[in-house]
Design a protein that fits this description.
Blueprint (H helix, E strand, L loop, with lengths): L1 H7 L3 E7 L5 E8 L5 E4 L1 H4 L7 E5 L5 E10 L4 E6 L22 E6 L7 E16 L8 E8 L11 E3 L5 E8 L19 E5 H14 L3 E4 L13 E2 L17 H4 L7 E5 L2 E2 L3 H8 L7 E8 L2 E8 L1 E4 L3
Antiparallel strand pairs: 1-2, 1-4, 2-3, 3-6, 4-5, 5-6, 7-8, 7-10, 8-9, 9-12, 10-11, 11-12, 13-19, 14-15, 15-16, 15-17, 17-18
Organism: Streptomyces aurantiacus JA 4570
Protein name: Putative periplasmic serine protease do/HhoA-like protein
Keywords: Hydrolase, Protease
Length: about 325
């Protein structure tokens, strides 16, 4: 573990974000490539995105100004770039998060409560954990099918790498379950109780590449609005579109073409049980536009299935 930590620490940065009004916070990021791109969470840098200031400090104490390259609020992924990058940047290798197994060892590196270069260890406690999080600010909620770990993660760890036993990134630490709350959060949280959640790196890599290339991410969609109520009996297609105007099922969209209607209750996506709307969204977002998924749903008490070819929505608009 010590060798892995010592090798990774020089490639992890403490990010300080400050808004135009002077408010801000601290988070973590890691070197993504030799061009100076740093991967982190959207909620770490969101406050500095519009006219604010960003800096990244390495474990050797050297501090660099940075700028936002792109943000994806829904995925809670962001890429920033060092303005005057050092010549000896060493990206941390990325693992295949699809091959992660429950019980695998984990190492989290970050700046909990501003304490830079903190290393904690644990295991992968669960996979495909539905997580909805928000920083409590103006950002929209993010939805993920997360890796769960008992490695101690606290506010300030956000955006930092979750490593495997070989020192490769398996996820981006993003949210914790606080002891004093029924919900999950990305910021403004209390301390760790051993329930930390990370965005699988395969998804983060896909999003990060889009942000570097175009500045925004593309989301796979089924073309239907679902209830976001915290239920346990499936994802119900709403009567109206989000915001209350228009049809919940987009005319000639993916769901419409597959025969889905308002009131249908989606129970499974492929082999994954769907207990709520947020779970469905997080699971859809593990795919890419153009993928075909099998949706199992209930209508009038009868179970049916439909193959849906996922559409695309560009940006967080």
């Amino acid at each position: 573990m010590a060798d892995i930590a010592n090798k990774a620490l020089p490639s992890v940065v403490t990010i300080e974000a400050q808004s135009g009004s002077g408010e801000g916070g601290t988070g973590t990021g890691f070197v993504y490539d030799e061009q100076g791109h740093i991967m982190t969470n959207n909620h770490v840098v969101a406050s500095a995105a519009q006219g604010g200031k960003l800096s990244a400090t390495f474990s050797n104490g050297k501090k660099y100004d940075a700028e936002v390259v792109g943000r994806a609020e829904g995925y809670d992924v962001a890429v920033i770039k060092l303005k005057d990058k050092p010549a000896d940047l060493k990206p941390i290798p990325l693992a295949d998060s699809d091959k992660v197994a429950v019980g695998d060892s984990t190492i989290a590196i970050g700046a909990p409560f501003g304490l830079s270069n903190t290393v904690t260890t644990g295991i992968v406690s669960a996979k495909n954990r539905p997580v909805t999080s928000s920083d409590g600010g103006s950002s929209k909620s993010s939805y993920m099918s997360a890796l769960q770990t008992d490695a101690s993660i606290n506010p300030g760890n956000s955006g930092g790498p979750l490593l495997d036993a070989r020192g490769a990134v398996i996820g981006i630490n993003s949210a914790i379950k606080p002891a004093d709350s029924g919900g999950l959060g990305g910021g403004g949280q209390s301390g760790s109780i051993g329930l930390g959640f990370a965005i699988p790196v395969n998804q983060a890599k896909n999003v990060g590449q889009q942000l570097i290339k175009t500045g925004e991410a593309t989301y796979p969609v089924i073309g239907a609005s679902v209830s976001l109520a915290d239920t346990s009996d499936g994802a119900t297609i709403s009567d109206r579109a989000a915001g209350g105007s228009g049809a919940a099922v987009e005319p000639d969209g993916p769901a419409d073409k597959a025969g889905l209607k308002s009131g249908d209750v989606i129970k499974k996506l492929d082999d994954m049980v769907i207990d709520s709307g947020p779970t469905l969204i997080g699971q859809i977002w593990t795919h890419k536009p153009g993928d075909t998924v099998k949706i199992t749903y209930e209508r009038d008490g009868k179970e049916r299935t439909a193959d849906v070819v996922l559409g695309a929505r560009k940006g967080d608009g």
